[in-house]
Design brief:
Elements lengths: L7 H31 L7 H7 L13 H11 L11 E6 L2 H16 L6 H18 L7 E8 L8 H18 L13 H7 L6 E9 L14 H4 L6
Antiparallel strand pairs: 1-2, 2-3
Helix pairs in contact: 2-6, 3-6, 4-5
Length: 235
């Protein structure tokens, strides 16, 4: 009976361990990359939030957890307001059929009335397809938040200042949690949101914003130098 080489078993064990460890590192790196891609890029650094907020117009379909939505809405209601009147109402839309109805209403609004003759009808169909494609990005998000002010608030003449402040806080909070937004007015007209979402006359819409993970973060647009925008003591 031959005796075993005392160096053989440890060496084999060492190589097997290295192989297993290497495979584990590969799997771990792949898992981490996937998790990083799936998770919002969050930050508590205010200056990074201000610097990196972007107007996003194309979104991934990933759902937004309600806990994140509530944090964003909490931030929005913390905005400054005239006499602490807090005239806001935040209408959150997540139902796909409702989002689709808004999309279709916007397409028909922008495409215009249909022509009666066959030749013009073909041009109408092409125009409608172009409009649908152009608006598709706006309607790719899983959540839409309509920022409203209440006309029966204590100081209604100040609503037009209070409303945009809440919208700004909302968008910054969304960016801090890794989500994209965009301040929409004309692309989704107020009349359409009022009709599709049955918004009572007592409310005025400030804006509507899609909210979700961006398909990609847009590049930073050029900004004017600070010295062009600031005057000290007098103009």
């Amino acid at each position: 009976m031959h005796s075993k080489n005392p160096m053989k078993t440890p060496r084999r064990t060492f190589l097997q361990s290295c192989a297993l460890a290497g495979a584990g590192l590969v799997l771990a790196s792949q898992r981490t990359a996937a998790e990083d891609f799936a998770a919002p890029r969050r930050t508590d650094d205010l200056w990074q939030v201000l610097k990196n907020r972007r107007s996003v117009r194309q979104f991934r379909p990933d759902p937004v957890p309600e806990a994140d939505l509530r944090r964003i809405l909490e931030a929005a209601r913390s905005a400054p307001t005239s006499g602490n009147q807090q005239p806001w109402k935040f209408l959150v839309v997540r139902e796909p059929s409702t989002i689709s109805a808004m999309h279709e209403a916007c397409v028909q609004h922008r495409a215009g009335p249909k022509a009666m003759d066959m030749m013009a009808a073909e041009a109408d169909q092409q125009r409608e397809a172009e409009v649908r494609k152009r608006l598709a990005g706006y309607f790719s998000a899983p959540v839409y938040i309509v920022v409203l002010t209440d006309n029966s608030s204590q100081y209604p003449d100040y609503n037009h200042w209070d409303g945009p402040l809440a919208a700004g806080y909302l968008m910054l909070a969304a960016r801090a949690l890794g989500y994209g937004t965009v301040f929409i007015t004309d692309a989704i007209p107020e009349a359409i949101t009022r009709q599709v979402l049955n918004i009572p006359e007592r409310y005025t819409r400030v804006c509507i914003t899609p909210l979700g993970l961006p398909l990609a973060w847009p590049d930073s647009p050029p900004k004017r130098p600070l010295d062009e925008l600031v005057a000290w003591e007098k103009l």
